[in-house]
User: Fold Serine/threonine-protein phosphatase from Suhomyces tanzawaensis NRRL Y-17324.
Amino acid sequence: MTVSFSIPTSDLDYCLEQLLDHKPPKILPPETVQQLCHTLKTQLLGVPNIMHLQSPISVVGDIHGQYHDLLEIFQIGGSPPTTNYLFLGDYVDRGYYSVETISLLITLKLRYPDRVFLIRGNHESRTITTNYGFYSEILNKYNGSADVWSWITDLFDYLPLGATIDGKIFAAHGGLSPSCQQLDQIRAIDRFKEIPHDGIMADLVWSDPDTEIMDFKLSPRGAGYLFGLDVINKFCHDNDLVQMIRAHQLCNEGFTSYWNGKCLTVWSAPNYCYRCGNKASILEILHSNYDSKNGSKTSDNSFDDPPGKLRSSNPQGVLPGQYFNIFEASPENDEDTISGKSVNGINTDINYAGSDFFGSYFQERPKRQHIEYFL
Assistant:
């Protein structure tokens, strides 16, 4: 039986000081990471698969180990606890600072449990992190030991799968599933495990919207599905929702609005992989003062306008009370691009024996990669 215990606030503040007040930030000792992970797991045991959150809240998409850009998000959107944050997953892999990024988010979640909320993405997985950088980064930063990787990936099994905001907006990392018509089906999932190859849990973290189709279609990623307008209209209608918010896809302008705001993609890793040159965003939701029953499909694939002006004239394609705060990569992101070197002296030119070293993902890789793990 797991025995619950808490970490003193002073200890959490000390961890934040190590990560935030030093340049470069200090790596937390293994025994500290172990205690942080164990404490957060005991707290997450009582959290449902779909969290019930309220506005105002800021929604953050993929971060992928871009630690300095995460700090930029807090500069732009406000630091916890002054701002409520919902993070949509994909905290690690690809970037140079996955260890620092996930350490900071875990500490912030423990320090401000009612202000910071984390859900699971497709990269919160043992299989993916072994191949896309997090595992190798930990080996390098912790002198060849994989203990920290084991503790953090065990914690990933406890992360919720989604959230509702004001009961009207559904947020998940990826998208919808042909096996799921009701939110209650997600609530009934046993989430405390590695992400499976298929099924509702896999589709939630792997699927993508597609404006060219109406129904479901197999995804070219090799996992999850593409879903169209009919799918999201029915899902929202059946669950009394007005919108889905998700991450998972690189957006050159930092965000994408589908079907006049019925589905939004928020992307929060600027200059992704230190070479894509894209912008990033956070989605600020101030309120949701509109009637979900009036958000119906019309012949031009848009929303009918209820008295509460559900259709937004905002050029961002969002609903009333929502705003994409767009930002560029931090100066430190540019420095990483030039030097090809991460924090604490880990250089991407070093080859670590017996592993797929994470630096290779930033050296002459194509911009678009197909996932091959579920073929």
Notes: The two ends are 37 Å apart (CA to CA). The mean pLDDT is 86.
